[in-house]
């Protein structure tokens, strides 16, 4: 999908450019600000996931809770966190239930 191509492009560009430059370039090419901002949040959350060692196969509840709380404090939405966790191999049902406790109703 289009959003996957956007993430892939952004991750590639971030190897050599700061996020502000990548974001400005994408907006200059006509990408909608909402899509770019959403991609930036998800990339940030993937970085947090790495920091908290959240990856496919990890099922540490304490790390999950710390990661989810850090996502919330960083301005990530419950949906952003859910998408990142499912992308990393977590079960949708488990993610939805756990995030509900941390984020409340969204």
What would you say this structure looks like, in words?
There is one protein chain. The longest helix has 19 residues. The chain is mainly α and 106 residues long. Helix 2 runs antiparallel to helix 3, helix 3 packs across helix 5 and helix 4 crosses helix 6. It is elongated, with a radius of gyration of 14 Å. Helices cover 72% and strands 0% of the residues. The two termini are 25 Å apart. It is built from 6 helices and no strands.
Structure characteristics:
106 residues; 6 helices; 72% helix; elongated
Summarize it:
The chain has six helices and no strands. By secondary structure, it is mostly helical.
From N to C, what is the helix and strand string? HHHHHH
| Average pLDDT level | 86
Strand tally: 0
Q: What are the low-pLDDT stretches, counting only 5+ consecutive residues below 50? A: none
Radius of gyration: 14 Å
Major sheet summary line: none
Overall geometric form: elongated
């Amino acid at each position: 999908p289009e959003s996957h191509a956007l993430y892939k492009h952004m991750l590639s560009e971030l190897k050599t450019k700061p996020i502000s430059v990548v974001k400005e370039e994408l907006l200059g090419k006509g990408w909608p600000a909402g899509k770019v901002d959403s991609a930036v949040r998800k990339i940030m959350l993937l970085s947090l996931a790495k920091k908290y060692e959240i990856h496919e196969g990890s099922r540490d509840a304490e790390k999950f809770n710390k990661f989810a709380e850090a996502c919330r404090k960083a301005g990530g939405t419950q949906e952003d966190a859910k998408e990142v966790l499912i992308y990393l191999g977590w079960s949708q049902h488990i993610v939805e239930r756990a995030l509900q406790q941390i984020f409340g109703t969204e």
